[in-house]
Specification:
CATH class of the largest domain: Alpha Beta
CATH architecture of the largest domain: 3-Layer(aba) Sandwich
CATH topology of the largest domain: Rossmann fold
Number of helices: 14
Bound molecules: adenosine-5'-tetraphosphate
Radius of gyration: 21 Å
Largest sheet: 3 strands, parallel
CATH superfamily of the largest domain: HUPs
Strand content: 5-15%
Structural class: mainly alpha
Low-confidence stretches: none
Shape: globular
Number of strands: 5
Amino acid sequence: MRIFSGIQPTGRKHLGNYIGAIVQYVASQYRGEGIFCIVDLHAITVPYSPAELRERCYDTAALLIAAGLEPARCTLFRQSDVPEHTELTWLLSTVTELGRLQRMHQFRDKSLAQRELVSAALLCYPVLQAADVLAYRAHEVPVGEDQREHLELMRDVARRFNARFGDGEEVLVVPEHRIPDVGARIMDLQDPTTKMSTTAASEQGTVFVLDGPQAIERKLKSAVTDSGTEVRRAPEKPGIGNLIEILAAVRDAPPEQIESEYADAGYGAFKAAVAGAVIEYLAPVRERYDELRGDESQLEQILQGGAAQASAIAAETLADVRERMGVGAPRRARTLP
Ligand code: AQP
């Protein structure tokens, strides 16, 4: 089974990214062929600093390896190093419905938040994401809950392509999402009705993977809760529910177990327990990150090696897609010496 996922380049990956996605990436290396991509082309759909983008790619590569991705066990690469992604985006845009792109939640939220230009690239973001996955004919895509809508779109694009050009065959694999049962949507600690996020949420409400113990403790202890005392999940207790979910994910235990263990502990003691568990959980990642991040040439070598592996797979898919669409020279002519 082939498993693919992409992650934006930033040095500020948060606990939501970690629990919702990165932990799943690491586990998937033992279940199938894992292909993981640092999506620098997605990062340029909103205002960004060219001088910093490469640095952020190295940050993300170091973080993923620190979390447990093993370059010998999986393929880890930078999106822009494999040009097939952009070519496939254009080809797939011909079977993507414009109205659907305009209605995507992420596009609406991000375009409303944009003070400068709302780029066409921001609208086409989900088509690039579809190309990322479909280029590898991946069967499974581990993601957090916020990506469900994009996954549905990419499934639709694959089906539409197959129906239009497949001649009865599944040229592109229709992928399944893999969203974790616990921790699929970690919420902001200061506003537990919105998701923990790199761009939209508050600094104080966001635990970053590279935060030190004091920052983690401060953020978790000041997490917004309600006026009650009971540690249980309920619609009127989103703050406590979020902390229960975090502790359950960190301990790899069912949320019910956390509820029964801390039901009468009181919010103060519960928050302290969550803080302690998160500090312990993230400490080894931070330490390993510091070791890895210093060696940029090694990180570059890993990304280049990954790009070569990825390219070999994506080029094969592109050759099939071009052939089916009648684009460019026929396949047999192109293979002549
Ligand atoms: N709060 C979250 N809880 C669980 N999973 C989450 N993910 C994001 N936020 C949460 C998952 O992390 C993976 C990588 O995300 P990304 O780097 O591509 O960025 P994103 O999905 O756009 O979310 P961010 O990091 O918070 O950035 P912004 O601020 O741009 O929205 C994805 O699988 C995602 O589901």
